[in-house]
Design goal:
The chain has helices at residues 15-26, 42-46, 60-64, 71-80, 83-92, 112-125, 178-185, 207-210, 245-259, 275-288, 294-298, 304-313, 327-339, 394-412; strands at 3-11, 31-35, 55-56, 97-99, 104-107, 129-132, 138-142, 145-151, 154-163, 190-196, 200-201, 214-222, 229-237, 241-243, 264-269, 340-344, 346-347, 355-360, 378-380. By secondary structure, the chain is an alpha+beta fold. The strands form four sheets. Strands 1, 2, 6, 7, 8, 9 and 19 form a seven-stranded mixed sheet that branches. Strands 16-15-12-13-14-11-17 form a seven-stranded antiparallel sheet. A three-stranded antiparallel sheet has the order 3-5-4.
């Protein structure tokens, strides 16, 4: 069997793999990135609607809260490569960044291709090696020490191996679940993968009448009591159900519950106002605008197609005036607006999901180095680990920060 030698072999040429590659060659490591597709960074091109939301410029505590109970595991990586440091890194490569509403960071050009371009250019400039169109068939280990990989019968030996092959989402862009199989072969537990940052299918909706309607400020609650998770953001009705930031953020937890064969119901507030706020409005309207119809006055707050859905759901005629509106109908409308309950049939699946929830169990990985607890010199970064974040830069922040932590850890070792 033929063999070649490097300091580091990186499995997967996505966001984490490319950041690791650039960081490694900058640190003087002979580095090889192996990517099963014919080019690197295909999924990176699809992020942020093609604009590439690089990170989220928030206070560190708020940023850590965006990782669904994994804040303690991601803490070291995020602290070591905070948003300001990441912006500085990309600026050093010639990529100007801008911070938009809510702290979302994008390239000034709004082109994900520019992000990929500067990473590829820097990696090539420093002499990093690429092997494209080839998949890793196995990771070589002797006595629980990693020593390289096998590709098409050829051994690629290395002092360290980084597994950054992504999850199962958008397989045509590179994440096909093969990284999970490699981890399992070495004895690592893989938490059941499920789609995240994905639309939800809801059967009990008039899809043909609502598809395309967007509401800017909604909240979605999954579960009840102390176990409840509440998300806020814009909501979009689709031809199958629901999407938008608030739904994408909730979808990871929803997907996990569905994987456990649990019934999942969402409690949705279609606005930022409380029941009391709406009751006060109706009291005022009855006194000042009694001759106006309920349809007209609600259309000042919501799109007309959504208003029709509100009134149909509360069995209220569109021509009903505020003076004619019965208290029982008013209560139905208010309850609908602040606490509608919809049951989720399923997610739209891995083909439509931006991120995979689940992955290599973080209990089997040292959080301060991201080295395997089972196999020495084997490291993990990005989506292959059981870490997923909210919509809007969290997942790329993790991909880049985890990759940097791995390279720093190898350098110190």
């Amino acid at each position: 069997m033929n063999s070649k030698m490097s300091d580091l072999v990186v499995i997967g040429g996505g966001a984490a793999g490319l950041m690791a590659g650039v960081s490694a060659v900058r640190a003087g490591m002979k580095t090889l990135i192996i990517e099963r597709l014919g080019s690197v960074g295909k999924k990176l091109l699809a992020t942020g609607g093609g604009r590439c939301n690089l990170t989220r410029d928030l206070p560190i505590g708020e940023l850590l809260d965006g990782y669904y109970g994994k804040k303690n595991f991601v803490r070291t990586a995020i602290y070591d490569f905070q948003p300001a440091e990441m912006i500085k890194f990309f600026t050093s490569l010639g990529l100007e960044c801008v911070v938009e509403a809510g702290g979302r960071v994008f390239p000034k050009s709004s082109k994900a291709s520019d992000v990929l371009g500067v990473l590829k250019k820097e990696y090539a400039r420093l002499g990093g090696e690429l092997l494209l169109g080839e998949g890793v068939s196995s990771i070589l280990c002797d006595d629980r020490v990693c020593r390289g990989v096998v590709v098409d019968g050829c051994e690629y030996l290395a002092g360290s191996v980084l597994l950054s092959a992504g999850g199962c989402s958008m397989a045509e862009l590179g994440s096909d679940g093969s990284g999970f199989a490699l981890a399992r072969e070495l004895g690592h537990k893989v938490v059941q993968p499920s789609p995240a940052l994905v639309g939800l299918v809801v059967a009990d909706l008039p899809h043909d009448k609502l598809a395309g309607v967007s509401l800017p400020a909604c909240s979605v609650k999954v579960g009840s009591g102390k176990a409840a998770h509440v998300f806020q953001g814009d909501l979009l009705f689709t031809h199958k159900g629901l999407s938008g930031t608030v739904v994408l953020d909730a979808s990871g937890i929803v997907g996990r519950l569905l994987e456990q064969n649990k019934d999942v119901k969402l409690t949705i507030s279609f606005c930022n106002d409380s029941k009391e706020d709406w009751e006060n409005r109706f009291t005022f309207w009855r006194k000042s605008s009694g001759v106006r119809t309920i349809s007209v006055i609600l259309s000042e707050y919501f799109p007309k197609r959504f208003v029709k859905y509100i009134l149909d759901s509360s069995n209220t005629d569109e021509s009903t005036t505020l003076a004619e509106l019965k208290k029982i109908s008013q209560d139905k409308i208010i309850d609908f607006l602040v606490a509608s309950v919809l049951e989720v049939s399923r997610t739209e699946g891995f083909k439509k999901s931006y991120v995979t929830a689940g992955g290599v169990d973080t209990k089997e990985v040292f959080p301060k180095t991201l080295e395997s607890r089972r196999v020495e010199n084997l490291y993990f970064a990005g989506e292959v680990l059981d870490v997923d974040g909210r919509c809007g830069g969290y997942n790329l922040e993790w991909a880049f920060a985890s990759a940097r932590l791995v390279i720093n850890s190898i350098g110190k070792k």
